[in-house]
Amino acid sequence: MSHLSNDSQKLVARIRRIAGQVAAIERSVLANAPCSETLHLAAAIRGAVGGLMDELFEEHLLAHVAAPELSPAERAAGADELLTVLGRHFR
Amino acid sequence: MSHLSNDSQKLVARIRRIAGQVAAIERSVLANAPCSETLHLAAAIRGAVGGLMDELFEEHLLAHVAAPELSPAERAAGADELLTVLGRHFR
Amino acid sequence: MSHLSNDSQKLVARIRRIAGQVAAIERSVLANAPCSETLHLAAAIRGAVGGLMDELFEEHLLAHVAAPELSPAERAAGADELLTVLGRHFR
Amino acid sequence: MSHLSNDSQKLVARIRRIAGQVAAIERSVLANAPCSETLHLAAAIRGAVGGLMDELFEEHLLAHVAAPELSPAERAAGADELLTVLGRHFR
Hints:
Methane Monooxygenase Hydroxylase, Chain G, domain 1; mainly alpha; 3 helices; homotetramer
């Protein structure tokens, strides 16, 4: 990972924590844990994936739409990708 | 409204439909309508407000972050406002 | 409103606050207010409608699914309505 | 897994698909894939975790709140757990 930027290393660490949470919810179901425990674990994963989305959204907005050095075409493409992924997101 | 852009007129029409839906849910509660009817109306309002957010998000992104004629400072401010409103949104 | 339960009066008050917020966002668009202000108002409405949904969800769950005096058929119908309104909600 | 109910086996299969998606997004970041690809993968994980929540919510509601054979105390506890996990969810 030495060639990765600091941002990417943080992302990878965040993704690995999510992978750990997904492994824990699998163990919880396999152990027939109480339904409410599994639901809590799922809600926590949901929050963690939301945090990942927040970070990726911010990174993409800053690097591919707002960055001053982008050409108009690159900027338009970056905005378009954001709207494609998030389009109708709030609905 | 004649001085409003087409986009703004569409927004106002959309907002007035939401106002109509909010008036309808008030009538539903005042008439002691079945709980499930009120819940349906609330879910529909939620969807309509989400649609409004989608439209405002797209407008803001295109006009205040992606538009080619913006100065770097305007663009940075536009991105910042978007992150302030939507920050930690997905979580 | 004297015939309304306390719960319904609180709901109506909450709905009227939302109506006030919707009127404010309409004025904001009509006045050509800055896009970021309109976006903030929309995000606040979204939060308020979410709070209304939370309250209606809790009321419905307690009164129409969990209440001890319900018949099995009423309870099944109450659960079904909740799943119909919220079904595929998290997705 | 032979002792697991059909429902649990389906849940485990669903969770393993999510684990596969999380592994894919890690590889995508490690490979310095385009930001938009990573964002797409994250949005897909978000949808899949939402689907898992939908399924767990339905299971919990039916088994621990609506089921006819529950005692009033079990039913109240089941409703309470649901409100604890989902409370203020819509906001």
